[in-house]
Specification:
The protein is α/β, with parallel strands linked by helices. Helix content is 40%, strand content 19%. The chain contains 17 helices and 16 strands. The longest helix is centred in the N-terminal third of the chain and has 18 residues, at 125-142.
Length: 512
């Protein structure tokens, strides 16, 4: 890296999140009107990012309606200047579209490399600037402020630097609020990012620059880090790293890096990062990898027994990424690498105390199950303890006697369920949107008889082994909320039957 590193400690950085525009370019992702409004509201009011980009102009009728809803809400809440829409150098078309939905900020997509302007647009640099001027003039007449994306800026800096400088020199003369520097194809490394951003900042100290990273080489976070070190004061993110191809810089990782490594501040509320990540996961249908930093299911889970032992003595395996910062808790996995400290921590969570000999026997059983590749959860522990110690009350208190499920085309599925609770038989029939939903509605009818609530279902995942066998065992894992969050699983060749087994395990757990 050339040049001196700018002192960044204690400075404030702004975040522009583009989940609802660039993130929606993830293959298979399309947010509904209600989903866009929900994500926009949480990003601005709960997570507290500085700006959001919600759409591209002219995309579809659905996009138009979604933008209207978001912008109506933003106007009511005083957020209009924080909501931005991508527009194109197309005369008045994009601007008329943005104006029709109530938008007040356009991010104008211009060309940041000579190759793009000459080969895609078939224009000279001078012609492109004249076209941009016409768009900006029209935007002013409509009362719409303008930021500019220099698309393919990273390739422009590599291969046509004179063109980039021509564009920035001309754009700074125009009423443009910010010039946004995208690594459109995700080609940059951290050294290039630093040098190119530094060159922009030193040459044009009066211009406000944003940096927009893509993750094609898995360097988006590193490039954001070096852009900030070079002097960039606004960076772009997406929730969960959504985006075209390999995605963009993940919001959660960017925030942690800014705070812990650069010692800078943002307005973002860290405790809300898990909430928005789970919401976008649900709306997008794109599962968060279990090992994804900060937001993955297992990133605050210690597996090795030595780690649990060290944590219990003096938090020896803690770092600055404390789960409480992000609204989460530390857990200790159960498996073949578990030690007594792991298992003791999980037993304490359930309120179970064992003497040393019993703890040793339970540890040996869990290691044995782990060797057989069987999944062991905290919720399995009461059963394992009862089995290992030959306890008489291991028998489940709630038994499924039988059930009947029916599904006919054009009719709602129905279920008749018969269960025994502490020796007494209960039966109910109900319909639902699916066979499992009908089963749950029948259960609710039974539980309503003695005014007992059922846990809230938070998540439902099905795992089918690869290979295409129709008789393969299906694993269904259901996440519940009942005073705390917990999971149960069922295994069966039939998906609904597997879900019912997981549900019966849940019923017995809450009885315990």
């Amino acid at each position: 890296m050339t040049g001196s590193v700018i002192e960044v400690k204690d400075q404030m950085l702004s975040i522009m999140d583009t989940t609802l525009r660039d993130g929606e370019q993830t293959s298979g992702v399309s947010f509904s009107e209600t989903e866009k409004l929900s994500v926009a509201r949480i990003l601005l009011e709960d997570v507290k990012v500085d700006r959001i980009e919600i759409a591209s102009a002219r995309v579809s009728e659905g996009e138009l309606n979604a933008c209207k809803r978001v912008l109506e809400w933003a106007k009511e809440k005083g957020h209009l200047q924080k909501v931005e829409i991508l527009g194109f150098v197309d005369g008045t078309v994009s601007l008329d579209w943005i104006n029709s939905v109530g938008g007040k900020v356009m991010n104008l997509l211009c060309k940041g490399s000579l190759k793009h302007v000459t080969q895609q647009l078939r224009r000279t640099p001078e012609q492109h600037i004249e076209d941009i001027k016409k768009s900006i003039d029209y935007a002013q007449k409509l009362g719409i402020s303008v930021n500019v994306y220099l698309e393919d800026w990273s390739n422009g800096m590599r291969n046509s630097k004179d063109y980039v400088h021509f564009m920035v020199s001309e754009l700074r003369k125009l009423p443009v609020n910010r010039i946004m520097l995208p690594d459109t194809l995700g080609i940059l490394d951290p050294d290039e990012t630093y040098d190119f951003c530094r060159e922009m900042i030193e040459t044009y100290p009066d211009v406000k620059f944003d940096f927009h990273a893509h993750n094609d080489y898995d360097l988006a976070i590193a490039n954001v880090f070096h852009a900030i070190k070079a002097g960039i004061r606004c960076v772009h993110t997406t929730v969960n790293g959504l985006g075209e191809r390999a995605g963009n810089a993940p919001l959660s990782s960017v925030i942690a890096t800014i705070k812990d490594h650069l010692k800078m501040q943002t307005q973002v509320n860290e405790k809300m990062l898990t909430k928005i990540s789970r919401l976008v996961e649900s709306f997008s249908g794109i599962r968060i990898p279990t090992n994804k930093p900060l937001i993955g299911e297992f990133v605050f889970t210690q597996c090795a027994g030595i780690h649990a032992d060290g944590d219990s003595k003096d938090k020896l395996y803690y770092n600055d990424l404390l789960p409480e910062r992000f609204g989460r808790t530390r857990t200790y996995a159960l498996g073949k690498t578990s030690g007594k400290a792991n298992i003791k921590a999980n037993l304490e969570e359930l309120g179970i105390e064992l003497d040393n000999n019993a703890l040793k026997l339970v540890t040996e059983r869990i290691i044995e199950l782990g060797d057989r590749k069987e999944t062991v959860t905290t919720e399995d522990l009461p059963y394992i303890v009862a089995d290992v110690l030959n306890q008489a009350d291991a028998e489940p208190k709630i038994k499924l006697i039988n059930y009947s499920l029916s599904h006919a085309m054009g009719l709602h599925p129905s279920a008749t369920v018969s269960i025994r609770i502490k020796g007494k038989k209960y039966e109910a029939t109900a319909s639902g949107d699916g066979q499992y939903d009908a089963f749950m509605n029948a259960l609710k009818a039974i539980y309503n008889e003695f005014n007992k609530p059922l846990p809230k279902l938070l998540d439902y995942t099905v795992t089918i082994p690869p290979g295409g066998r129709t008789d393969a065992l299906v694993e269904t894992v259901i996440t519940w909320d009942y005073k705390r969050e917990f999971k149960t699983r069922g295994l069966d060749p039939d998906q609904t039957a597997a879900a019912i087994k997981a549900t019966m395990r849940m019923l017995n757990l809450i009885e315990m």
